[in-house]
Amino acid sequence: MTPNIIREYDNQFSKIDDIIKLTLGEPDFNVPEVSKRAAIDSITGDDSHYGPSLGTQALREAIADFMQTRYDLTYHADKNIVVTVGATEAIYDTIAAFVNPGDKVLIPTPTFPLYESDTLILGAEPLLVNTQDDDFLLTPERLKATLDEFGDDIKVLILNYPGNPTGRTYSDEQLKTLAEVLKDTDIVVIADEIYSELTYDQNHHSIAQYLPEQTLILNGVSKSHAMTGYRLGFIAGPEDLIQGPALVHQMAVTTTPNPMAAAATVALGTPAGHQATMEMNDEYQDRRDYLVNALRDLGFELDTPEGAFYLFPRVPEAYGDDDPAFVTDLALKAKVGTVPGQAFGPGGEGHFRMSYASSKATLEEAVSRIARFLEEQ
Fold this sequence. Notes:
The protein is of the alpha/beta class. The protein is built from 12 helices and 12 strands. The chain folds into 2 domains: 5-30 and 274-372, Aspartate Aminotransferase, domain 1 (Alpha-Beta Complex), CATH 3.90.1150; 49-270, Type I PLP-dependent aspartate aminotransferase-like (Major domain) (Aspartate Aminotransferase, domain 2). The model has no long low-confidence stretch (mean pLDDT 96).
């Protein structure tokens, strides 16, 4: 294990005066007012005792309604949902529940590095599959070839979509074809859908629609409602699968904080909460469109992301595949902080991640600085 590389670069670049940091996946919006009020009411109402281990009844019911309304997925509050301390805890709980030392966890890359780190903590083996040649998506052909090679050693497949760092996501048909490959196996699919509410060119679909008995969905309010500091996530899945993660959660953290649960309940369960997400989504799409066009005008090669709030351009040709060198130069000379693609595993080399979870004015200034840097180079 090594420290989180994203955080390492962010900490390093934070020491540079006047730096514009586009490093972290940290929304620049404030928490919706309806959620703030709910948290305050919980505190002033002395809601200070242990809540249920699985999460408050009101929040689990709100989650069940959210999943049904938004994604046509049926989960029952009392037996299919576990509330966690952010989606980060949900990642650990689900991997821990299904692997023993020596088991393999299939992780398409480039992707969020925590999946690999948690797998290593648990003594299992990350099986990193480079998807760069397949437009940063796992294809059924690549999946089948990997399963044929490693067979029963693979216990878990992790899918993150819309993806961090690429912003790519899967269409309904693509998920259906992946499910066809997986349906005759015992592999548990951990579908990290934390960015599901932030999609721009197509509606979000879940592989749970086609593989319900093998899929656990991870989600939360950090990205969709700018509530990263509230640390509220959840796991949803069939009763027989979710019992293991529920036990890991219970032993690790006991339960989640009641005021934060109250805030998440109204975020997911009220029209005002949904409206706040839609307004953020519209702003993210505007920023995406601006930044994609601006970077292409500067000569960068990049795909248009379909979700989340990241771009994953190629570094300039002069740097080859040395993305750490480019990112370091950009920070020191242009004072724009980004993250090297190598931080996200095989297939990330030669790219860099930019978060556009910053104001339009900040992004415009960042583009101006990058333009001057390229001219000087």
